[in-house]
Amino acid sequence: MNAVLEAAGVHVSIGQTTLIDGIDLRIDDGEMVAIVGPNGAGKSTLLRLLSADLRASHGVVRLKDQDIHAYAPHALALRRAMLSQHVSVSFPFTVEEIVRMGRGSQAVAAAQPLIDAAIDEVGLNDFRHRELPTLSGGEQQRAHFARVLVQLACGEAVQGPGVLLLDEPTSSLDLKHQIALVEIARRRARRGTAVVAVLHDLNLAVRFADRIIVLRHGAIAAEGTPAETITSEVIRQVFEIDVAVERSSDGSPFLLPQAMRQILGE
Amino acid sequence: MSGTDVKVNAFVRTIGRVRRPPAPVVLCGLLLALLLTVLLAATVGAAGIPLARLPAALGLVASEPGQAMASRDQLILWSIRIPRIAVAAMIGGLLGASGAIMQGLFRNPLADPALVGVSSGGALAAAGAIVISDSRFATHLQFLQPWLLPLAAFAGSLATTMLLYRISSRSGRTSIAIFLLAGIAIAAIANAGIGLLVFIADDRQLRDITFWLLGSLSGATWSKAATLTPVLGLSLAAMVFVHRGLDVLILGESEAFHSGVDVERLKRICIVLVSAMTGAAVSVCGVVGFVGIVVPHLLRLVIGPGHRLLLPASVGLGAVLLVGADTLARTIVSPAEMPIGILTAAVGAPVFLLILLRQRGLVGL
After folding, report:
1. CB half-sphere exposure, B57, CA atoms < 13 A
2. Would you call A182 helix, strand, or coil by DSSP?
3. Residue A257 falls within a domain, yes or no?
4. Are residues A75 and A101 in the same domain?
5. B244, A130: Cβ pair inside 8 Å?
6. Which A residues in the span 22-41 are in contact with B, Cβ-Cβ below 8 Å?
7. CA distance A172 to A169
8. ipTM score of the complex?
9. Core-most of B36, B95, B164, B335, by most CB within 10 Å?
10. Domains in chain A: how many in total?
């Protein structure tokens, strides 16, 4: 395994407020990593650091052994793709036009198979000629995911396996499409893409990730496999809530908040 | 899958389906519309030139000997009407495309250089240049004389656009409400400045400044057409480099950066471009409003918001609209002339209101 993305001693402060407090991490190619934590823990800030959207006050983020800010924007876009949490579009682009934006400077004809494949993969074939503002929030999120997949595919065709960063990619999706998104990300990881996602749903994070990073107050509170990190002690310490950690038939943990157990009468 | 399911799925696929006409059809259609409008503009006016006499007046065929009308037609056509049509077409193109670029830059279909004070900023600087050009200081700047007004209008437009961007953008997001309100405030400040210049100007300066306030094409000459040509040429060339960036910028500055766009460079180019196009138009014909809002809006309804086609098509439709509006302005109350700004506002203001009503939810007003 090779490290594709590394953060070394990164701090982010705005005024007197510290958002990220000395984080070190390493993401390998083909790895699926979930970043979880309570509101305000610094999850999205960390992802913005890893995407070069934000500069660290101290410390350095390296992408493929090079300072991430040393890349020109177009060179960076060939090596990492990022899906933001909210993208609002005030002009009536169709789904296909939005997805096509992911091709960067690649010619439309060359990118068209990738565009068709991405639209098909997120299940928007019937909506490809619909204007984005006429679609539901979940459908819009899937369209943007397809755009990011096209960017990733175009970049990987030139530069080899890259990095896919996802900021709460399932926030508007129903259960079926949440699982579908995880499966799509897993397929990319099998081809060598490093996938990092900020997730709120811990049960989804367990299904999603090879490794989970638990953030609290801008620092790493726990890190490891789902079985190592998703324990009742860690959840109580970080989320300040009592949970029961059950085991599913395949041995992976899943959470049931104690309050929910009482309602269910267990 | 049953036959009913197939029919239902086929129906679902057609709901809300958008069809865009091919780019060559759009551009050829606009070119044809421009040719017809130019033909109309060349033949009608205070001194009409019937279509039958047009080839002779243009010098395409030899006029019959002894026809005094032919030389009169030629004089009107080549000295007055054709330069005016050329200037109107170029200004319409510049204003239409500058509106489209500004709307892409601000991610806001309500952006128009005249509406948010960019034209007023240019006009203030141009009016200032008129007053200063008579001062002792200006005698050192004689060599700049032909370019003084365009340069001043460009500088005024540039300063206004930059100020507007600085005020209304925060962390890569533009507040539509703050953008419009800041634009109104900037326009008010610029208009107050113009008022002050009118107050201190002498009679000759006053006449020149009033020309800007009216927004008229009556002063169009070949030299003014020559001033506009390089600006339009450079703008058309620059569109090739900004259209993809503007598309992605619609998703927000962060998304554009993630997609590989050098956002800061794109913003700088667009601000300079909008200022040069608006400044050039203002320096020739004053403040003509709403062209920049009506043209891209109408085009988006037909061809969609993609800037690759929207920008050149805005030049085409802007040219058609302004040549048409100018023809109307000089014939509707002939032999007098109606200021063209009144006509563009009469058409543009309702379109602006229509967009505002459709966007009410987004604007949050």
Report:
1. 24
2. helix
3. no
4. no
5. no
6. none
7. 8
8. 0.92
9. B95
10. 2
